[in-house]
Amino acid sequence: MGDFQAPYDILLISYLIVGDLNNARFLWKRIPSQTKQQNPQLGALWSIGQALWNENYPLFYASVSAYEWNVMIGTMVSILIEQFRQKTFKLLSRGFSMISTNTISTHLGLSPEDTLQLIAERGWEEHPEIEGMFKPKPIEEILREGSSLADLQSLTNYVVFLHK
Amino acid sequence: MEEVVNNVFVLSEVDLDDLKERLENSQEIILRSTPDQLEQAITQLYLPTGDYTLGLLYLLSVKCILEFDPTVFIQQVTGFISSANSVQLRKAPAKFRLLCEKYTDICCQENPIIAIKPLSEAIWKIGNPTGNLLTPQHWMLLKSAILAKCYHAVVPHLKHSVYNIENTLTNVESKDVRLFYYYGGIIFLSQKEFRNAVEFFRNVISSPALVTSVIMIEAYKKYVLASLIINSTTTQVPRYASNGLIRHVRSLCSPYEEFATSYRTNSLEDLSKCLENHSEEFVKDGNFGLAKQVLESLARENIARLTKTYLTLSIEDIATQAGLLDGHLIERVLSMIQKGQVFAKINELDGMISFHESTEKYNSTTTLQYLDKQIHETIGLYEQLTTIDNEIAFSNEYIHKILRSDRGGSRSWSGMDEDDYNSSLAMSMSGM
Questions:
Q1: How far apart are CA B167 and CA B135, in angstroms?
Q2: Per-residue pLDDT tens for A72-85?
Q3: Interface test with A, best of B293, B326, B338, B339 (most A CBs within 10 A)
């Protein structure tokens, strides 16, 4: 068989980035235990997966920084963190009418100072009387309009079909 | 043995039917040959171009009933399938089926992931080019995927509509159909596509049958659990399923029936108690994970139901009303908001959650694309149906049946029948 080592770690982190936790779980079950023992990085990656699966925000941010990743995996983990933060930020904007700085910090894995800075950047209003409570600003989704030649072709096909 | 091999060499290009007959007759000889002779013959006949597929098939299938070394066998069959010639394979579908079944068995004991790619190829080779023929190899592939935990690899086979059966070409039996839908349902469960899973399990339990089968019983258990997860208010079986059999199956699955009744009370407490009571049975059937998902689904449903009654509700009230005891309600609701299961806004200041309507206006390009895809699929389906309809209308049996009923109905028209018959024949001639 030679020295070929299946790139389980890259596959696992890729599943996490695209959000396919299901198949990440099955991949973990499939990996032979010997490989798991020889590759502690894999176990560390799976801890991230478990945190995501259980939607445990503090644990996620803890597990992504708990290990010294090698260069390639490290880059991908950074991508994961960034993407996860953005997704969570959108969720918080959508899901809260009033939110405390504490909640924001835990969900985004940021220190209190960084949190306040982020809120200021995004223009969230502070509650006039109570400190530490903010009103999220809803994020405008950009609707992309415009059809193309392919759409015209589809429409023609439909009309022909309906006339049969 | 020499003679057998020579026959294969000579007749494979020339006359496959004759070769098949001779091979059928020489099975005794092959059985009685020594393992060395057998191995030698196999090596002689193996060619990457698959010229001697039929001969090799018979030799390998005889090997199935003898003692053999699993690793060598796996290698040989894997090589065989990838080099096999479809035309020759179709001459002996029963043997191919036997071979694949044994191959699946052995692989599943050693390392199931090996079997996935070859069986996938086997389906294409024994089936037809458009790939809508159901073959015995379908369920073998699904079973290997399940045991290898490689579920995603076979989802395309499930999504691709398989609706034709040709016993002569593929040697498919009713058991194969049931197994296909059962294993297919399990794979959909793994991918959390519960609606598709329910459909597949429904196909198993409503298959025409005279007696209940184990497949049907196991499918029914999963059917109940899966339909609870998608919150079907009933787990009713379609009308065309056999009533007597369903009653029998239900009596064998009483823990599941109790579980379903418990679900309908909407009480999380009752459901958890029921789960604990029957946990042994669920674990034995391998359905415990699924049952826990049902529990989750009830919690979600309880929260979602509150949106129909209340505009705003405090967090504690939601917890009590939904019967949830844990303190992570905010997280839970946040998760539901993300998945689009509920539309709400949490107010941490006064601990209230206000529900609102979906903000989806359906005016984006995503909606357009989705609509486009659905229309496309419908048109495709319509064309498929028209083809099948035409095939039946022009088939001899149908024409005969119509004319027979005509003839029986009105004797005075007997003169016209000849013309009718001739014109129908003419239609079928030109239609083909």
A1: 9
A2: 899 999 999 999 99
A3: B338
Q: What is the pLDDT along chain A (164 residues), one digit of tens a residue?
A: 445 677 898 999 999 999 999 999 999 998 988 888 888 899 999 999 999 999 999 999 999 988 888 898 999 999 999 999 999 998 888 888 888 888 888 899 888 888 888 888 888 888 777 767 787 777 766 665 556 777 788 788 888 888 87
CB B138 within 8 A of CB B126: no
Cβ atoms < 10 Å from Cβ of B4: 22
- Angle at the Cα of A62 from the Cα atoms of A61 and A66, rounded to 5 degrees: 125
Cα torsion B79, B131, B189, B103 to 10°: value is -20
Q: Is A48 within 8 Å of B212 (Cβ atoms)?
A: no
Q: Identify the residue whose tokens are 């013309």.
A: B419
Structural contact between residues B323 and B267, judged by C-beta atoms closer than 8 angstroms: yes
Taking CB atoms and an 8 Å cutoff, what residues of chain A touch B365?
Answer: 143-146
The residues, any chain, with a CB within 8 Å of residue B231's CB and separated by 6 or more, are B297, B301
* Interface check B429 vs A, CB under 8 A: no
Angle at A39 between CA A37 and CA A43, to 5 degrees: 80
Other beta carbons less than 10 A from residue B141's beta carbon: 27
Q: Strand, helix or coil at A27?
A: helix
Do the beta carbons of residue A80 and residue A48 sit within 8 Å? yes
Tokens of B21: 């007959």
pTM of this structure: 0.84
B191, B345, B364 ranked by CB distance to A96: nearest: B345
End-to-end CA distance of chain A: 59
Q: A157, B379: Cβ pair inside 8 Å?
A: yes
Instruction: Give CA–CA dist B252/B256, Å, rounded.
Output: 9
Which residue, among A9, A23, A17, A16, has the nearest Cα to A72 in the 3D structure?
A9
